[in-house]
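Late entry, written up from scratch paper. The run itself happened at the end of the previous shift, but nothing got recorded in the book at the time, so transcribing now.
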Amino acid sequence: MEADKKWDLASVASIPLIMTLGNSMLIPVLPAIRTRLGITSLQVSLLITVYSAVAILLIPIAGYLSDRYGRKAVIIPSLIAAGLGGLVSGLASWWIDEPYAMILAGRVLQGIGAAGAAPIVLPLIGDLFKREKDVSQGLGIVETSNTLGKVLSPILGSFLASFLWYLPFLFIPVFCVISILMVLFLVKSPEKEPGKPVKLKSFLASVRYIFTEKGRWLYAIFAIGGICMFVIFGTLFYLSDELEAVYGIKGVLKGVVLAIPLAALCVSSFFTGRKIGQNKILMKWLTFIGTAVLTGAVFACGFLVHSVPWIIALLCISGLGMGLVLPSLDAFITEGIDKKQRGTITSLYSSMRFIGVAIGPPAVSILLNVSKHAMFYTVSGACLFAAIIAMFAIHPNKGALKSDKSKGRKKMRIRIGS
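Output as recorded:
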């Protein structure tokens, strides 16, 4: 990897880490918030869902703006908005007797910021590095950073809430300021390609053409990414509630237990990102194997609903499987799209991941009203669907690497599922 880009990469990787902390820190605190505010399980799950729902709507707009005006021009204001959202939620919890509505409002503002921060990281990595090998490694580090945020979130969230239940909200702006300073001063914006900015009508036509030519594999990757996030946030929501309600495990200890499956995901993502390089065949099979492992592990949880230790072990296995999938999807979606449309397409992919985040907790809450068995079997069915489309909708072409001499370097021409 280019030595002069290491600080750029570290700064960019701070964005998904901090955005994940800002959202996932709440997972272990949700039962305490529900008790403190006297609200239902579905209402408390909306603190996750409303954040994601707003981001889903705005991510494509942020992607287009980043393609037109530059990545940093979108990322910096978005981080500011995310920090202000956390501040609103935290101060409302501190000052207002019935703060639920204002907490939701703060989460909406935080979701607006999230739309223009973490999703723009993928195209920015593609812009920063010239060699495709470096792009793959950079994406692996970013996905690892994202997962590391999920590992630290339950521990840090539980620790902060042990002092004040709303303290996780107030730490969000602190994290955002750190990331803003790193991106502002350490990330060198890539040079823009010469030429006038593409008009919106022409840009939309080019995006439509991309989906016409590459829609089969793009839709498959969108769906798999969304399912993976659905599984992560749905199972964590279940496990957080189960540990506290049934086993009386609270605070930092609960955070440590929740972090165990996520640590497996983090380690797997790191090594997958280093291994895949430009090998599209390997990416396809890692995606299929990972989703197949995920399916089996979640399905097995349905037989062991009364044994939390076994469920944690199986979720660790599912984390290893998911760690094979996510960096492969990131590489496919970033390296398979031309730089001019990369921000928009990767943002649509991020929207699908946010849909999974938004649906996970409330869907699991509703399914648990039927039974724990129904919840795990339904989730494993979604994983099986992901494995099927990974097998049949993603078809890398072995001759995909061609030379583009007009730009003075080799450029990836991906024909997947065509």
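The mean pLDDT is 85.
(Scratch paper discarded after transcription.)
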